[in-house]
Amino acid sequence: MNKQILSKLSLFLSGLEQRLNENIEYFKKITFVFKSGTKEYAGIIVVDKNMLKINFNTNIYTFQVGEFTKEINRYAQNYESLILTYEERGSSIYIEADHKNVKMKSKDYEEQVREVQKSHSETHSFSNRDYYIKVGKANQLLKEIGILSSSGKIKNDMIRKYNQIDHFIELIDSMLKELCEKHDSITVLDCGCGKSYLLFVLNYYIREVLKKPCHFIGLDYSETVIEASKNTAQNLGYKNMEFQSTDIKNYHPKRKIHFVISLHACNTATDEAIALAVKNKVEGLAVVPCCQQEILSQYSFKPLNSIIKHGVLKTRIADVITDGVRSLLLEVAGYKTSVVEYVSPIDTPKNLMIKAIKNSELNVEKLEEYKELKNLLSIEPTLEKLILK
Q1: What's the CA gap between 127 and 139, in Å, rounded?
Q2: Helices 159-182/197-204 angle, 10° precision
Q3: Whole-number Å distance between alpha carbons of 175 and 356
Q4: Domains, the chain, ordered by start
Q5: For 280-301, what is the mean pLDDT?
Q6: CB burial class (10 A; 0-12, 13-18, 19+) of residue 171?
Q7: If you write DSSP's letter for every residue of 304-367 in order, what string do you get?
Q8: Residue 112 half-sphere exposure, CB side, CA atoms within 13 Å?
Q9: 35 in helix, strand or coil?
Q10: Interatomic CA distance for residues 88 and 236, integer angstroms
Q11: Is 388 or 119 the better-scoring residue by pLDDT?
């Protein structure tokens, strides 16, 4: 390539170098092909311990990210043309250079639109629902978490699971977009993450659909599921995740948390997740509670004695009181809350989601409402002790 083309190529490569430096956490690989006459010479660049490792013409060595432009240009001067593909999660960039011109295009636009349209069509064959996590586009993720078979078809016994995780995204989508607009990057914490299926789905959605820098933290007391989550993240190439084996109440964030989720954390573990969010002034949270035992053993209300003498009815009312009190205490702490149906009661009776967005400080009026309700029902909720002490 002549000097004029090499100079123009340097400008394109410098922009790519800056992007690589900023998005190293989401970087996958760079492949390139130099051409001289009819001969082609292929190479690849990957990340190795925050360095770039190149494999080209039987040479393998590492260099700093800031040397990327210099290294590619060093080779380019010996060849007639170059086709380079930069890949990161959610997008690809192509650079083509020859003796006439240098061109760059991104897959973020027209090509990606066509992919989305194709995946809409593929998903439509499964269901009329317009999925947020689409078969076709999200196949790597869906295969890794067991939703899809190796042939790319949804497993019959995972249809319900697929619907549930996608509906979770649907219910919090507007909250996520609001946070993404406010912050350069957002961090999501999952309390009681288990195998972290929701966290992986959120990672895919925020990074590859909403195109937002993000970080994810999963907590669980079980070392077994934490190791499973770490392995899944490694298999997916999701470098923007960390997992810790710990009780929720013992966790102290080392970075700003923007959103907290918790799915089916039993009994007062849900309260611990809510309290963690409140104490750390987390802006948004979505919890799906489970096994509400604490209030069941506490509450009494004489006008309902003829009803709650039946154990099953007393339990159901305790569930409602528990989640109602959680919602009210979140309002006391300055959150705008809503309680919605997460999945059909046919799937599970534990089907309510509490959503909350921080919009003020302590709400004295709601505090008085809570005190009155607490005295009326003779209850001492753990959540009060965790967030109002």
Answers
A1: 16
A2: 50
A3: 9
A4: 3-108 (no CATH), 129-387 (3.40.50.150)
A5: 92
A6: middle
A7: GHHHHTSHHHHHHHHHHHHHHHHHHHHHHTTEEEEEEE-S-TTT-S--EEEEEEE-SS--HHHH
A8: 15
A9: strand
A10: 12
A11: 388
Please state, as a whole number, how many other Cβ atoms lie within 10 Å of the Cβ of residue 92: 15
Q: Which residue has the tokens 């611990």?
A: 272
Q: Residue 148, SS3? A: strand
Give the span between the Cα atoms of 95 and 238, in whole angstroms: 25
Question: Residue 24 is encoded by which pair of tokens?
Answer: 């190293």
Given a cut of 70, whether residue 349 has pLDDT beyond it is no
Longest dimension (CA), the chain: 92
Residue 192 has pLDDT above 80, yes or no: yes
In angstroms, what is the C-alpha Rg of the chain? 26
181 burial class (0-12, 13-18, 19+ CB within 10 angstroms)? exposed
Phi, psi of 100 (to 5 degrees): -100, -40
> What is the SS3 assignment for 296?
helix
Alpha helix locations (H) across the chain? 3-22, 68-76, 110-124, 139-144, 159-182, 197-204, 223-236, 269-279, 305-308, 311-332, 364-377, 382-387
Average pLDDT over residues 137-150: 94
